[in-house]
């Protein structure tokens, strides 16, 4: 087993460190800056549908949420996202102009499979964004986009999430180009940034020591709050999910702008608040949310873009991540949150790879 972990103490840490290579595999040979497009080799016709429904569970659901911003942003198609256990029982409005996408690492999650079947029964075209080759979902969809993350052993998903984000970025460009909503020059810039992503993710791994230090500072906290806006809202939710899954610290995530409608009541000097505040068109808005936290004594851990000195005035701790296109910022920003969860769980002596009550894939309802 030690050999399988490649010298790492846990599978999860090994898988976190595999992310740059994994992303290279996901994107591998599929990006074409010359043609300002993405080659996905799918039978689905990206011009045929009028709406997209994405269903998934757990971490894959947060990839769906990121995917919504990417697809709506670049391809201007309305996207609805649902946790699969809700979708399958809500009698969704679906027709043949709907593309239903199921995102799943295992391809075996029963709720995701049943949600997909529901969309299919109602006439939707179907696409799987899947890691496991030949898994149940891949056998029922019209088409599969494999994410090529390799086997993931740690129950808390890390590298599969990264690969899902890469796949959603490619799908968004693919749809945007085919539908004529994404101009060539813009596509080229975006693809250039996407191609750099494995290297940028690699750089974020260098922050491990710094993050271990922050984990040390706050590992006795009873609760954590994670905040983010727009495409970084799902990053906040994924950060909170990772922390609660493996450290058992209660963690809540919220869209930062919505904090004033509830969670602000929780803030005091004992509450660490992680805020995703990377560069984006709404950067200033998030900065003012940080000030609201600070004014109430909260401890702010900001995840910010390299070179942002302003944020230092309001946050006790700043974890810098490399600059990229704001629609790609979740990829560089989730890594510090994975490491924060990991280091915290290790400090608390938790079973990182086999957290209590959780299963790697949930095949019963
Ligand atoms: C379980 C796992 C999660 C995973 C979720 C969905 O809850 O513990 O890590 O995100 O299932 O799994 P899937 O295989 O469908 O991506």
UniProtKB/TrEMBL annotation:
Its EC number is 2.6.1.16. It catalyses: D-fructose 6-phosphate + L-glutamine = D-glucosamine 6-phosphate + L-glutamate. Residues 38-181, 214-355 form the SIS domain. The keyword Phosphoprotein does not apply. It is found in: Cytoplasm. It is an enzyme of class 2 (transferase). One of its GO terms (molecular function) is carbohydrate derivative binding. The active site is at residue 360. The keyword Transferase applies. Keywords: Aminotransferase, Cytoplasm, Glutamine amidotransferase, Repeat, Transferase. One of its GO terms (cellular component) is cytosol. Its main location: cytoplasm. One of its GO terms (biological process) is UDP-N-acetylglucosamine metabolic process. Homodimer. Catalyzes the first step in hexosamine metabolism, converting fructose-6P into glucosamine-6P using glutamine as a nitrogen source. This is Glutamine--fructose-6-phosphate aminotransferase [isomerizing].
């Amino acid at each position: 087993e030690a050999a399988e972990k490649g010298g790492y103490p846990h599978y999860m840490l090994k898988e976190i460190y595999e992310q740059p290579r994994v992303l290279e595999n996901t994107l591998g040979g599929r990006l074409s800056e010359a043609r300002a497009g993405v080659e996905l080799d799918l039978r689905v016709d990206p011009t045929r549908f009028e709406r997209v429904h994405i269903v998934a569970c757990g971490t894959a659901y947060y990839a769906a949420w990121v995917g919504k911003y990417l697809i709506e942003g670049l391809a201007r198609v309305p996207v609805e996202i649902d946790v699969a256990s809700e979708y399958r029982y809500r009698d969704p409005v679906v027709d043949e102009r709907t593309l239903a996408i199921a995102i799943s690492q295992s391809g075996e999650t029963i709720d995701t499979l049943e949600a997909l079947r529901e969309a299919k029964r109602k006439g939707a075209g179907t696409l799987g964004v899947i890691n496991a080759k030949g898994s149940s979902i891949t056998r029922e969809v019209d088409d599969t986009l494999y994410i090529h993350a390799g086997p993931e052993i740690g129950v808390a998903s890390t590298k599969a999430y990264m690969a899902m984000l890469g796949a959603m970025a490619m799908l968004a460009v693919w749809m945007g180009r085919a539908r004529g909503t994404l101009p060539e020059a813009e596509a080229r810039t975006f693809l250039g940034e996407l191609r750099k992503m494995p290297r940028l993710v690699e750089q974020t791994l260098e922050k491990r020591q710094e993050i271990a230090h922050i984990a040390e500072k706050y590992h006795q906290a009873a609760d954590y709050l994670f905040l983010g806006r727009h495409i970084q809202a799902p990053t906040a939710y994924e950060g909170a999910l990772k922390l609660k899954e493996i450290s058992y610290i209660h963690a809540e995530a919220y869209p930062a702008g919505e904090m004033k409608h509830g969670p602000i009541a929780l803030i005091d000097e004992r509450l660490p608040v992680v805020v995703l505040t990377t560069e984006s068109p709404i950067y200033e808005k998030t900065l003012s949310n940080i000030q609201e936290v600070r004014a109430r004594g909260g401890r702010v851990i900001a995840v910010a873009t390299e070179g942002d000195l302003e944020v230092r005035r309001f946050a006790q701790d700043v974890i810098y991540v490399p600059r990229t296109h704001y629609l790609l910022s979740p990829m560089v920003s989730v890594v510090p949150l994975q490491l924060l969860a990991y280091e915290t769980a290790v400090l608390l002596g938790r079973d990182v790879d086999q957290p209590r009550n959780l299963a790697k894939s949930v095949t019963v309802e």
